[in-house]
Amino acid sequence: MTPAPEGAALLTIDLAALAANWRTLAERAAPATCAAVVKANAYGLGIARAAPALWAAGARVFFVAQLEEARTLRALLPAADIYVLGGLLPGLSASFAGLGVRPVLGSAPELAEWSAFCRRSGADLPAAIHVDTGMNRLGLTVEDTLALGADRARIGFTPALVMTHLACADAPGHPLTALQHERFSRVARAFPGVPASLANSAGTLMDPSFHFDLVRPGIALYGGSAIAGTAPLKPVVRLEVPIIQVRDGISGESVGYGAAQRLGRASRIAILSIGYADGFLRAFGASDGSPGAEAVVRGRRCPLIGRVSMDLTAVDVTDVPDVERGDTAVLLGDGIGIDELAAHGRTIGYEVLTSLGERYRRVYLGDFPA
Question: How far apart are CA 155 and CA 128, in angstroms?
């Protein structure tokens, strides 16, 4: 493919694949409602384009992490139901109400503040109640939530949702997953008539007992594998990088900072215009005895050599004939998925996506106007 103008790496986001992934998950979850998690700028892909594509696919319920993200999303989708996972900071009830977005309340002070605001405003404003079933991060205890279910008048508003978050559903057979399911089932029974939500991406792909009334997929929408060892849905992201120089390397000499890797043969080295400043993580690099990530050049896989630096990365193209300055190397796509790339950096696909930098030229495929 022709390099991006002015030497920028090209990040292509397939909105049609994103929409198709949502439809696949919605079919899997039915009759439960399928929401869409678009926090962190739609996992780094651009909420301004991703959210309208998900709405066009049929999503009507969305989750973000922060109020500012909800503000951006509300401007894009005036009719969406929007939940803010990060809870309710002091003094922000009026901001939530003014935007018509729903806080996910996970502590007694948050519940008290939202209830008091509802009383003062004379409105029964929707919010979610978050129960901690084993993550030990956000959320009320199971016991406190059950007590609220037994005395709903204490809440001070009508909950729109009761929810929890799975900690280990990406690891098949983990005992905490079954324990969280049992705990949340008790909570859901204590709130008859209130929609219940347990499943993230992994939970959505598990058996229907995890679906309850609403599922909240995130990583699976964007082409990442939600459960270890299982194939992801359609790939959404492609990353192509220009080769800015091709040079000869002498056997025994080192490549890059720290002389981390020495060449075992006379080599041809392609230098790519990408580095950790672009979110291409330093951990993707290679050293003697520790291979790094790979790139696809002219249809063939080639290993990275040496460390990834701020703006540059080296690739061994010795076995690929006729590589020239101005060619492109594919770092995501052509069979390289986000989870494979993540594994080379000893991280997860979530970090790969949300690290994607601002220097890329982004191209969106699919007719979903912003």
Answer: 11
The mean pLDDT value for 9-38 works out to 97
* Cβ-Cβ contacts under 8 Å for 178 (sequence gap 6 or more): none
Q: What one-letter code names the amino acid at 143?
A: E
Which is the catalytic residue, given 222, 257, 350, 364? 257
In a domain, 158, yes or no: yes
Write out pLDDT tens, residues 293-342.
999 999 999 999 999 999 999 999 999 999 999 999 999 999 999 999 99
Give the model's pLDDT for residue 7.
67
199 and 272: one domain? Answer: no
Specify whether 244 is located in the same domain as 275: yes
Closest CA to 321 of 257, 263, 270, 255: 270
Query: Residue 349 contacts by C-beta under 8 Å, 6 or more apart in sequence?
Result: 219, 224, 225, 337, 338, 339, 341, 342
pLDDT, tens digit, 9 for 90 and up, residues 228-259: 888 899 999 999 999 999 999 999 999 999 99
Q: Are 272 and 309 in contact (CB under 8 A)?
A: no
Q: Point out the catalytic residue in the list 39, 43, 222, 360.
A: 39
Per the domain annotation, does 149 fall within a domain? yes
Question: Averaged over 17-26, what is the pLDDT?
Answer: 97
3-state secondary structure at position 95:
helix
User: Radius of gyration over alpha carbons of the chain, in Å?
Assistant: 24
Give which of 239, 232, 240, 173 is closest to 205, Cα–Cα: 232
Q: Which residues in 27-53 are b (16+ Cβ under 10 Å) and which e?
A: ebbeebbbbbbbbbbbbbbbbebbbbb
- Give the whole-angstrom CA distance, residue 220 versus residue 336: 16
Annotated catalytic residue 257: yes
Asked if residues 93 and 113 have their Cβ atoms less than 8 Å apart, the reply is yes
Same domain, 303 and 342: yes
Print the domain residue range for 324. Answer: 237-365
39 counts as catalytic: yes
Cis peptide, bond prior to residue 232, ω within 30 of zero: no
